[in-house]
Amino acid sequence: MIGSFKIKMREKIGYASGDLASNLIYQTISIYLLFFYTNVFGLSAGQAGVMFLVVRFIDAINDPIIGTLVDKTNTRFGRFRPYLLYGAAPFAVLAFLCFTTPNFSATGKLIYAYVTYVGLSITYTCINVPYGALTSAITDDNQEIVSLTSVRMFFANLGGVIVSYFVPVLSAYFTKSFGLSGGWQITMSILGIAGAFLLLFCFSSTKERVKSVNQDHKIKFSDLFEQFKTNRPLIVLSIFFVLIFGINSINSSIGIYYITYNVGRADLVQWYTVLGSLPAFVCIPLIPKINRKIGKKPLLISSLLITVLGTLSLLVIPTHAVALILVSRVITSIGSLTAGAFMWSLIPETIEYGEYTTGKRLSGLIYAIIGFFFKCGMALGGAVPGIILGNFGYVANKTQTPHALTGILLTATVVPAVLMILALIDITFYNLDDKKYNHIIATLKERAKLNRGENLNL
């Protein structure tokens, strides 16, 4: 425990650059991978949807293993930062390969898609779990965590804006010279290289300060089940993550179909996707102030209600009313971005709560648990639209039937709204308020003092 410590803005920016790196790839996966697989690579919507689910099943096995490994790590660079250093290059290479279309048979291409997507997902976990856990190692001050997370989310959404606008622009530009598949391949090579350098900057700019009260405890895989038995805030937050990421991923992946086919304005795709991230630059800097004024639950509940309003408005807005559709997108984004940004600041609370109840500081394992659930949400963004579109008769690069257009509309409105209602119910069970959290921090500090005293007497 280090007590209150003011983190310099340079370190906050350095830390946030790691999420900018991740989002250059993650946002591209979330927004464009389903479209790339169906309209460029050559998979059917059903094949792509099933693959998204299979990859998440593999993550179910992979995430806690990596989380346990991270908690056992102890190097001269720290516990978490080494993964940023050594994961940067593989992350860039696999992002490039994932958006490469090989000259294989239909079966060969499907196998290639599985291998590269699974490889990228595993590498993402090896980076994202320790990166997320690094927050709780930089500081244990609640307000500093909210501030650090807000800067992080600001940069994450900057990545979203870059991806939303420049990916279609760059891919279209390079397509003129290198063909459709070549355009995507070169675009991803640029994003991958940029992401690798940003991860290296994050590694060099941050410092691990917070240590476990008792680092002699051996970390075991079975600790995963102990956390689920004793850590109620973690369970509630895990469910919240899968729902919020599911909502955001579905909105992102179906948006390109809705604008292209229902609205009939493929030229507006980049602007529609940009509006999914642009409001972040206004609402995210206000999160620390709003949190201090109204508290956690009111902030999250009001954000979700705003998201419901924006999402369901598409059911009544005519498809020719482009301006109203874009306004609806902004309203939806304000709510979802605020909830999505703030929920990350709650993870360190679950780490402290877990240490308080079990005596073990399982930063890596807890972030692995959260990572699994938010990637399940990502899977919903590919699997649910893919499966629904397949069942409603979607055919790539063709004029869609009224039935297919209905499937797109329902996926863009009703499905996210149902998930948001479930998220509203879930967050009411979060039982860790500021008073209880401050008591936990004070108790852990007392334990740390006693532990240091015992070590001095040995």
Automatic annotation (TrEMBL):
It comes from the Bacteria. It is found in: Cell membrane. The keyword Transmembrane helix applies. It holds the Pfam family MFS_2. Its main location: membrane. GO terms for cellular component: plasma membrane. SUPFAM superfamilies: MFS general substrate transporter (SSF103473). The keyword Phosphoprotein does not apply. The chain crosses the membrane at residues 20-37, 43-62, 83-105, 111-134, 154-174, 186-203, 234-259, 271-287, 299-317, 323-344, 365-388, 408-430. One of its GO terms (biological process) is sodium ion transport. Residues 1-435 form the Major facilitator superfamily (MFS) profile domain. One of its GO terms (molecular function) is symporter activity. InterPro entries: MFS_2, MFS_dom, MFS_trans_sf, Na/Gal_symport, Na/Gal_symport_CS. It is a multi-pass membrane protein. Keywords: Cell membrane, Membrane, Symport, Transmembrane, Transmembrane helix, Transport. This is Sugar/Na+(H+) simporter.
